[in-house]
Design a protein that fits this description.
The chain has 5 helices and 9 strands; from the N terminus they run E-E-H-E-E-H-E-E-E-H-E-E-H-H. It is elongated. The C terminus is likely disordered.
Length: 195
């Protein structure tokens, strides 16, 4: 139970990430955060949260004297900013950014028929960056080969950019809790793309 995720909201109730239940309880105890009751959205401090009765069979943390309800959503009491992170440059995230679509012809073949192509070929000094790597189907990748776009008479459908980071990019969908739904929408569960 102590390693389960708890949603963290900043002081303005904007989701900024997750933490473990263990860390959430420490933040609540130190008055650095308050617990939001998912049923009525009332913010509780440590004393009022520990005084809530835990129903039989409901998951809880047991101490010598207390049965503490598991906090699923916490609100920080002083932090009102947003963390500044970057999306990790990885094969998986390139596939997400390009939505499994060839950036030259727009086709959406099976994933096994997609490759990562360097817009400026590596043989010509092209680097592996967000702005230089795109998905290409096997046919377009062979057509372009190690030539420039102009030499291959091929064009990109969309200029490749680094995606913006969102708090939930690293949270598997299976870890999402029903009590979080009122604080986040579906758009937070994928990489946001500028269109």
């Amino acid at each position: 139970m102590l390693n389960e995720p708890a949603l963290v909201l900043n002081r303005n109730w904007y989701p900024i990430g997750t933490t473990s239940v263990r860390d959430a309880i420490c933040l609540i105890y130190r008055a650095a955060a308050r617990v939001l009751d998912p049923d009525d959205c009332i913010a509780h401090d440590f004393d009022s949260w520990t005084s809530i009765r835990v129903s039989a069979g409901e998951p809880c943390i047991r101490t010598v004297r207390l049965r503490i309800k598991i906090p699923e959503v916490i609100v920080l009491t002083h932090y009102d900013s947003f963390p500044q992170f970057r999306v990790a440059f990885s094969r998986r995230n390139i596939y997400k950014r390009d939505r499994n679509r060839c950036q030259y012809c727009g086709a959406r073949p099976p994933v096994t028929e997609l490759t990562i192509d360097h817009v400026i070929p590596r043989s010509r000094g092209g680097r592996s960056t967000w702005e230089n790597c795109v998905l290409a189907c096997l046919r377009c990748n062979r057509r372009k080969s190690s030539r420039s776009l102009a030499e291959a008479s091929i064009a990109l459908q969309r200029t490749p950019k680094e995606p913006r980071w969102t708090p939930f990019i690293s949270i598997p969908l299976a870890k999402r809790k029903a009590s979080w739904e009122q604080f986040i929408s579906e758009r937070y569960w994928d990489i946001e793309l500028e269109t």
